[in-house]
Amino acid sequence: MKVDEGEIVAIVGPNGSGKSTLLKSILGFARLFQGKVFYYGKDITGIASDRAVSMGAGYVPQMNNIFPNLTISENLDMGAYHRKGRASVKAGMREIFEMFPELEVRKNALAENLSGGERQMLAIARAMMAQPKVLLLDEPLASLSPKPVSVILSKLEKIRETGTAIIIVEQSVKKALSVSSRGYVLVEGACAMEGEANSLFAEESSKQRYLGLEAKGY
Question: pLDDT, tens digit, for every residue of 79-94?
Answer without folding.
Answer: 998 888 889 999 999 9
